[in-house]
Amino acid sequence: MRSLGWLLAASALCPAHSLAAQKAPLVIGKGRLGPIALCSKLDTVNKVFRHVKDTVFTGEVSTRWRAKLVNVGDGRLTFASSWSDSSHIWSMGSTSTHVRTPRGYRVGMTFGDLIAAREPMTLHLPEGSLVINLDSEGVGVAVDEESERRFYDRYQDYHNPPRPDMVPDSARVTEISVSGGCPKASR
User: Fold this and answer.
1) In the chain, N or C: fewer CB atoms in 10 Å?
2) Residue 153 class from Cβ within 10 Å (0-12 exposed, 13-18 middle, 19+ buried)?
3) Rounded to the nearest 5°, which phi and psi values hold at 186?
4) Rg of the chain (C-alpha set)
């Protein structure tokens, strides 16, 4: 499973409300997903959303860390801690079209849409997955597996950084996320 590691008013997200019933989308960007900021206590998710599922992610060398999943309309929100700090949020992401960046980027858009918007971007390859950082928004996006495979067919010179022209214009955004480390002072 690839997960990457999203601002409505807090009153619109109180547990008595459902995201599907909201008229405005959740906003993700620069360290926030809706009213939740990176480095917040992981249990904050339960105070903001209802129907939260607790889970555990497993990484290399049997490392494990806590996460929370929230189903929203056509996708889900993921709030994950870290193997080194299981009580704070180190990454947040979404596979739902109900989550947008401040400039309106969302799951379901194509890479060609991002190029047409002249969005500055940087490509990264953590753990072999293609992550496209949308620099002005402070988010990363993942694309569909077929487009990622086509990207790797074009990216053969591993001594040079990957370039946006190696990503097919038809690549579809499948996940959008923010992440960052939490300084020890916030623990």
Assistant:
1) N
2) exposed
3) -85, -5
4) 16
Burial class for 143, CB neighbours closer than 10 Å (0-12, 13-18, 19+) = buried
Which residue reads 């400039």 in tokens?
103
Non-local (6+) Cβ contacts of 156 within 8 A are none
List, in order of start, the domains of the chain with CATH numbers.
Answer: 10-186 (2.60.460)
Q: Locate all alpha helices (DSSP H) within the chain, ordered by sequence.
A: 44-48, 111-116, 145-154
d(CA 152, CA 112): 18
Question: Which two tokens mark 154?
Answer: 């074009």
d(CA 163, CA 177): 20
Answer for the pair 95, 76: CB distance below 8 angstroms, yes or no.
yes
What global pTM score does this model have?
Answer: 0.83
Per-residue pLDDT of the chain (187 residues; tens, 9 = 90+): 344 442 222 223 333 334 444 557 899 999 999 999 999 999 999 999 999 999 999 988 888 999 999 999 899 999 999 989 999 999 999 999 999 999 999 999 999 999 999 999 999 998 889 999 999 999 999 999 999 999 999 998 888 999 999 999 999 999 999 999 888 644 4
The DSSP-derived string for 48-61 is H-SSEEEEEEE-GG
